[in-house]
Predict the structure.
Amino acid sequence: MEEPLIICEKKGEGVSVVRLNRPKVRNALNSVLRQQMADLFIQLNDDPQTKAIVLTGGDKVFAAGADINDFLTTSTVDMYLRHSERYWDAITNSRKPIIAAVNGYALGGGCELAMHADIIIAGKSAKFGQPEIKIGLMPGAGGTQRLFRAIGKHKAMKMVLTGNMISADEADTMGLVSEVVEDEATITRAIEIAKQLSHYSPIALAQIKEVANLGIDMPLEGALALERKAFQILFNTHDQKEGAKAFLEKRPAEYKGH
Ligand code: CO8
């Protein structure tokens, strides 16, 4: 029987781990894998048992980018008609927090995939890069946009123009990752953070994500208004009242997500 391209495991306390599983081609992201990943993210968002998602690859590679085999014959029209933005949208629109656990290479579409996460935990030997230029191409899923917003023009421009990789420590210094840990600890740490988040109010987490992700590209005044409105909305939720009450009663809060 063929190995599944994606493996999803429940780790308890509301954490689901999504693992890319095409090790022979370094987890290259072909259309089938990407469709399955998109479907899975939609499914996990609808799954009441899942509160936070950890996204990971293998020990030596997170993902080596798009499947280059596919690039030999694909035409412009083929590429357009694929509407691959829908694969990414399923991840971008996740209301539940996503924590990427990156070991080894995160290159091209793999680096872009990691950047779709809310928090990135990198193992010490992780390497990030946008090497598309080395194959006569350019980034196509956020490498010229999300990367620039994450680390600034001159660091990002150097990465996309040279195609050279950076180490986990460099990525940490630049602000591309949230935390660097020993390689063996990457998944454990990501799950630990996911478990922490899974005990918080899902509706508050979703509001933080929505406001932060929309607001970052808006003029400050509008973004602050958006933040204020979301903050106000939370005052009509069970979870906000429960959070305040539990604090004052010195007990753990029991959140319901509404
Ligand atoms: N696509 C297809 N096959 C790949 C890919 C890939 N991206 N990466 C590796 N492979 C295959 C190799 O061809 C090789 O196959 P075979 O065993 O048949 O010879 C096998 O995987 C193992 O590869 P290596 O021998 O090269 O393994 P190493 O461990 O020595 O090196 C590397 C690992 C550094 C990851 C290396 O394989 C590499 O540089 N890969 C290509 C990285 C790259 O250029 N990525 C960018 C691709 S373009 C892109 O991502 C555009 C994004 C557009 C939008 C997003 C769409 C998802």
